[in-house]
Amino acid sequence: AQRVTQPEKLLSVFKGAPVELKCNYSYSGSPELFWYVQYSRQRLQLLLRHISRESIKGFTADLNKGETSFHLKKPFAQEEDSAMYYCALAFNDYKLSFGAGTTVTVRA
Amino acid sequence: NAGVMQNPRHLVRRRGQEARLRCSPMKGHSHVYWYRQLPEEGLKFMVYLQKENIIDESGMPKERFSAEFPKEGPSILRIQQVVRGDSAAYFCASSGSVGNQPQHFGDGTRLSIL
Questions:
Q1: How far apart, in whole angstroms, are the C-alpha atoms of residue A6 and residue B37?
Q2: pLDDT tens digits, residue range A56-94?
């Protein structure tokens, strides 16, 4: 069965410091992974997906099949990065399985 | 484009009543997905619909839950004879096609059962 684990429920960093959100998955097929973000009072929105291999708002994530991980990283956190972040795995083409989420707080 | 619209944002029901949650997909989207988020958990897939068809309802509880996406009007998630355990946030997403297209989410409906 597929499963997504985000071990950190809360993450607090200072502005300008690096931030890394951990995501591990288990899936027997070929994974397609996403990071979604939810800013305060806004809806869930797609941040990035591994197949596009692009950097959005300074965030990057690399799929490591050996470690079954898809950690999200940003070298210099900004206050506007404070949000809830969800890692998600797509299986059977369209079903998304989400982790429980990590709340990031960036302090000035 | 207003995006995916869900209503109501909050819904309170007493045990045994029916709950109806509505979702209008983004303009041009014909694929609708419903997810449920229980407290302290991630979103879990419930059902995938196209216009007038249920494609995959493997995540739906076997009883009391049903979904439809009629030719005209929004998609409806219906929960009959609600119980306390149905309290959750229900999210709807839509996409222009299945597969590689990203899913766009609505604001969700928070269902509370008294």
A1: 15
A2: 899 999 899 999 999 999 999 999 999 999 999 988 778
